């Protein structure tokens, strides 16, 4: 890795083409705006070489015993745990995530590697019912080379999930972390790769151009967590290449608040969902529908929750000023169309990429904050006439990642579970759930299982095997004379010899 100081003023991350030299990415501290470092992108030839090296290593790794692959994952988990303090500081420096939260994400990554180390050796096929004197079963085989493209908002946990599942099922991996946390991504590769044979886990660094090269390099599977726009491009490329695609992309997750819940508790849940990690979570609460019967109390409590977070400084900066500009543009458009920013809603003075916890009241379906992914600490609220009205609105849109419903009525909960076209429905808790969950996003939010035991299925192909006995046949003795017809077919020259 090569780093140099720089004074560029472009929005971050800034990818610069340095003429005849390689492109570079400049990273600034999201708290102060100061330059942290410049990272050199992996050159196109090196990207191709990485995929080729992974291809060369694939045959040997696929034949490695699953238990041995699991042992390698456990070693990687131990190395990751040992490197956690350094990784957390890099995460905080590049993305603004508080160190404590970064450490929690790394701990989740360690647990995920350990989980797949256990699941890999017991990932099995199925026996099939057929002729009782034959055997029929399925075998799960690795797909081959996996390109893994991961985001910046929880960079270690997400990367470990995809990399761990790919490796333990016998695939080799070329990993490209987000260009918004390149030093973290490079160091993560340096930590994990030594636990595996050469060529099994490789890392490259760069922006969208490097990602495009990877998706066009002939990989067998592409796993992507990131924006819906990037995910759509990857899916189009895969149609031509034949690669299997796993993608978790953007969301516009709704929160529906019923009339029979405590407004203060509901506001607390909404604040946790909208403001945690400054709203930079794939399953953040992005739009809120509250029943008119408790709307006044709910909105007042939500405004107080946001004000408290702004006052105590607990809202971390956004990853960079480019994202802040995007978030504020949606807020400004909502205000222009009639929404009221009762808390926050303004770009603060001073350095960095900070944006306050913001509550928007009077929102409508015509506003981008209600129809697009915002990915910032914004809680837009729309008052609805009834639960059915709110559910209809919550089920609308082109995304389908997750949704939350706060209700004391079991019939409403069951109605919502059936009606919401999303991969995950959460009742009465915005975050949480048992380990091993593997949801399938819908619409523009992606395709395929993400995480859990089912992710192992995504990284493998199923082969059906049928084994039958041949008909009875009496094998001749080794000392028996050849049949007469065989003697007559001897080369005439053999007798003369």
Describe the structure.
This protein is an alpha/beta fold. The protein folds into two domains: 3-250, 3-Layer(aba) Sandwich (Aldehyde Dehydrogenase, Chain A, domain 1), CATH 3.40.605.10; 254-440, 3-Layer(aba) Sandwich (Aldehyde Dehydrogenase, Chain A, domain 2). Helices cover 40% and strands 19% of the residues. It is built from 17 helices and 21 strands. It has helices at 44-62, 66-82, 84-95, 99-119, 155-168, 182-192, 208-215, 228-241, 263-275, 295-312, 321-336, 368-371, 387-394, 410-419, 454-458, 484-488, 492-496, and strands at 3-4, 14-16, 24-28, 35-40, 134-142, 145-149, 172-176, 201-203, 221-225, 244-248, 254-257, 287-291, 340-343, 358-361, 378-384, 399-400, 402-406, 424-427, 442-443, 446-447, 460-468. The strands form five sheets. It has a seven-stranded mixed beta sheet with strand order 13-14-15-12-11-17-18, with helices on both faces. The protein has a six-stranded mixed beta sheet with strand order 8-7-6-9-10-20, sandwiched between helices. The protein has a four-stranded antiparallel beta sheet with strand order 1-4-3-2, with no helix packed on it. The chain is globular. 50% of the residues are buried. Mean pLDDT is 92; it is low at 1-12 and 492-497.
């Amino acid at each position: 890795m090569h780093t140099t100081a720089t004074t560029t003023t472009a929005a971050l991350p800034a990818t610069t083409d340095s003429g005849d030299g390689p492109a570079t990415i400049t990273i600034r501290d999201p708290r102060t705006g100061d330059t942290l470092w410049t990272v050199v992108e992996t050159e196109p030839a090196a990207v191709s070489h990485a995929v080729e090296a992974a291809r060369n290593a694939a045959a040997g790794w696929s034949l490695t015993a699953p238990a041995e692959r699991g042992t390698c994952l456990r070693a990687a988990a131990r190395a990751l745990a040992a490197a956690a303090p350094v990784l957390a500081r890099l995460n905080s420096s590049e993305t603004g995530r508080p160190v404590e939260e970064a450490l929690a994400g790394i701990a989740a990554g360690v647990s995920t590697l350990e989980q797949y180390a256990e699941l890999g050796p017991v990932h099995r096929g199925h026996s099939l019912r057929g002729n009782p004197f034959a055997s029929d079963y399925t075998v799960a085989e690795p797909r081959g080379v996996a390109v893994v493209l991961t985001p910046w908002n929880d960079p270690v946990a997400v990367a470990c999930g995809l990399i761990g599942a790919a490796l333990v099922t016998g695939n080799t991996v070329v990993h490209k972390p987000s260009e918004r946390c390149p030093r973290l991504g490079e160091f993560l590769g340096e930590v994990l790769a030594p636990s595996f044979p050469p060529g099994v886990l490789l890392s490259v660094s760069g922006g969208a151009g490097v990602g495009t090269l990877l998706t066009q390099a002939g990989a067998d599977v592409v796993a992507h967590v990131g924006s819906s726009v990037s995910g759509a491009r990857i899916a189009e490329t895969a149609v031509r290449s034949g690669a299997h695609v796993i993608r978790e992309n953007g969301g516009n997750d709704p929160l529906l608040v019923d009339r029979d819940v405590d407004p203060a508790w509901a506001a607390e849940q909404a604040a946790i969902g909208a403001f945690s990690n400054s709203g930079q979570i794939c399953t953040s609460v992005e739009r809120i529908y509250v029943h008119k019967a408790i709307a006044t109390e709910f909105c007042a409590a939500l405004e107080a929750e946001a004000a408290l977070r702004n006052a105590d400084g607990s809202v971390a900066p956004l990853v960079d000023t480019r994202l802040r500009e995007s978030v504020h543009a949606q807020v400004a458009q909502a205000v222009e169309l009639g929404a009221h920013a009762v808390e926050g809603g303004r770009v603060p003075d001073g350095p960095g990429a900070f944006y306050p916890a913001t509550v928007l009241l009077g929102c409508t379906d015509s506003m981008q904050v209600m129809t697009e992914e915002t990915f910032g600490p914004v809680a837009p609220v729309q008052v609805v006439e009834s639960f059915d009205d709110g559910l209809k609105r919550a089920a609308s849109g082109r995304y389908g990642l997750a949704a939350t419903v706060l209700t004391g009525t079991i019939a409403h909960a069951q109605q919502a579970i059936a009606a919401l076209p999303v991969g995950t429905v959460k009742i009465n808790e915005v975050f949480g759930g048992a380990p091993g969950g593997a949801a399938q996003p819908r619409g523009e939010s992606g395709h395929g299982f993400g995480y859990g035991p089912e992710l192992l299925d995504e990284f493998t192909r199923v082969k059906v095997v049928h084994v039958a006995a041949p008909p009875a046949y009496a094998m001749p003795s080794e000392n028996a004379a050849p049949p007469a017809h065989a003697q007559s077919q001897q080369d005439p020259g053999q007798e003369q010899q």
